[in-house]
Write a structure and sequence with these properties.
elongated; mainly alpha; three-stranded antiparallel β-sheet; five-stranded parallel β-sheet
Amino acid sequence: MAGDERLGRQEGSTGSVSDRSWHGDEARSPLGRDPDPGLGRTRLELELESGYPADVVPELRSRLGPRPAAYSRPTAASRPQRPLAETAPVVRPAQLPAAVADFTGREHLVRELNERLAAPADRPAAIAIAGVGGIGKTALAVHLAHTARHRYPDGQLYIDLGGAGSSPADPETALGAFLRSLGTPDAAIPDGTEERAALYRASLEGRRVLVLLDNARDAAQVRPLLPGDGAPDCVALITSRAHMTGLDRTHPVDLDAMSPAEAFALFALIVGEERAAVERAEVMNVVASCSYLPLAIRIAACRLASRRTWTVSVLARKLADERRRLDELRAGDLAVKATFELGYGQLDPAQARAFRLLGLVGGPDISLPAAGAVLGLDVAETGRLLTSLVDISLLESAVPGRYRFHDLVRLYARACSERETRAPAEREEALSRLLDFYLATAARVYAMERPGDRMVDHLESTGHPGLLFETSKAALDWLFAEADCLLACVPRCTGECTRRRAGDLLLGALDLAESGARPRQYETVARAVGDAAHAAGDSRTEARARSALGHLYSFTGRYSHAERELRRALELDGEDPVVASRASNQLGIVTNGLGRYEDAERYLGQALEAFRADGNEAGEASALANLSRLHVSRGRTRTGVELAEQGLAIYRRLGAPLRLANGMYTLGIALTRAHRLEEASVHLAEALDLFHDARQPLWEGMAHFRLAEIQLMANRPDQAVAHAQQSLALGGLGGEWRRFSFLTVLAKALMAAGQRGQAEDCWRQARALRERLGSPEPEEVRQLLSASAPDLPAAQDPFPGHRDAYGVGPPVTESDPWI
């Protein structure tokens, strides 16, 4: 924790703790202003022996006495057979740092640890508190030691082992100081760590002593300082950035950041409750920028407290810039960055490289295979390196096989990367390898989900083979588990050498757009790629990014936006087989939904021709299905059924589960409009199961919606209500126009089931949606909401009041489509 106390408080705490300890070389140096070679003791030994700070020890020499000039330490052979502690005067050391008077937070943890210390049967030999620098390990340990000190009447020992610095304390020296503090005369203290450790353990027998080992480097440094099995009433509290694996009967505590409420309380304690309460929202922004790290919160609060003219919002704006955040978190000679430097300075070259490069990655965490791609190493070597970083708290692993940084540590890792000599080339190579990994694997998932779809043949080649999956489910599980990380990678790779692959990754991950799982994130990323490509004059990449964006907009009901992006994509690169086929296909869907049937037929004809020219059978089936929807919209139900059956036959031959579900869904709609309700119900029910297995909640909602229509037409209102409620629960991902459609069919089903009150509530919600979207209210809605409106006949045609296909009416305004 070196330096974390210089604000007058312990590391990450809220209490005042004087800096009694010396570190590294200081601990082994002579007293300085009044040396006494005859005394022959180090600062550390004198401080621990006396229980006073080293700067007052010279005044105490008279009580300590000098060593004899001819002094020599006894060997193990000449040491007394019984520990001298039995004949020496009883000494009760009280070396704990000052109590943390205003300790904040950690109440549940303190209570749990106190309960462990109070129960003899469950009491561990040691409690090892581990965590990143600045997390509050020392503050917690000191607070816990003071709350439990009444259980240890024979004394409390304390030492700062300096483990985070370059010169950690030597166990032999620490043992000598502890033995003197326990009353062992100098003449009885042997040379050698093992000899001193044996005498130390014997000295603790029959005593109840608490030992606080602060800032330990590793288990090897700590092990000789632990009470032995012969002292079951003694306990050690250990703080360290390293996890103390390999210590017997040790209870580990992996200390995490503060909760938002605890962070606010700490900040308010320093700047004043009234000042914090006035700008509570800005305070929460500040502590969030501090990533709830106690040391960072304390530094930020101290900066504000010393500047009475600043408002909290001024500080919040300064910390909002990630590139300057670590520089802003500095007060005097204390800085969050300096705390992290101590840990980074201990890394070997391979660990330091892994730390730097992993800091470049976006997303909440990273998988082991993805980390291997970043580092250019195999999984085994990557796992070894990442585990070593976890062991010293520079990396976290909350879930097996996945790793993450504390947010401020990530910023520091990036800063380390930027200051390296090879920084630009090293960063670009690492991100390029990660992009290759994601693109190759996403393309494999796409191919497994869409057999016969040749789009993957037109994607950029990669230097990574991608992961292999045994089943389609496993492939989809990977895609959705990696969604945040995959999408976060894309905007980091818009440079000259990676931009095309970044655009292609959007196409490979189209399932994320179709599922409606992350519409805002997908939109932001696609826009970033498109803008970068436009600035660079890269029409191919811009066209593909706009095509992906249009694909997303069409699935979320933003038809005018979708049409603009798709048409622009065709203008930019209509010769690209991917854009020529996919953009035309989506434009056919959009214009059909807008009721522009002639345009829809033209675009779908172009798409069918482009898919066939490319030998893309899956694409051909998709265009046929969309033509079926167009024919149904125009009242041509017979040809609509035929086209749907042709597309479904192709999907069956290709063996594509998700596409098969789309084909069944399309045929179900056509059969419904042809009043072949039982056949339609069978196809839609099967499609529903397939959509569920493929993790497509948007399409699940649509299938429930279509089944509700069928049940309503078949005069089965209770079943219609059940399906309509499911559609409403699942279909919010499809945008407000779909929600209006689902509310409409639910209201009709409720009315047919005799539940008029609930039906009217649904109609009111539908009316509010229409008003917000700026569309005129259908006459049907006005009639059904009027006081004199008759109950809706059970078998009334369900189609008035909501629209078909991929949308539910032409959008008039799209100010906030994600509501």
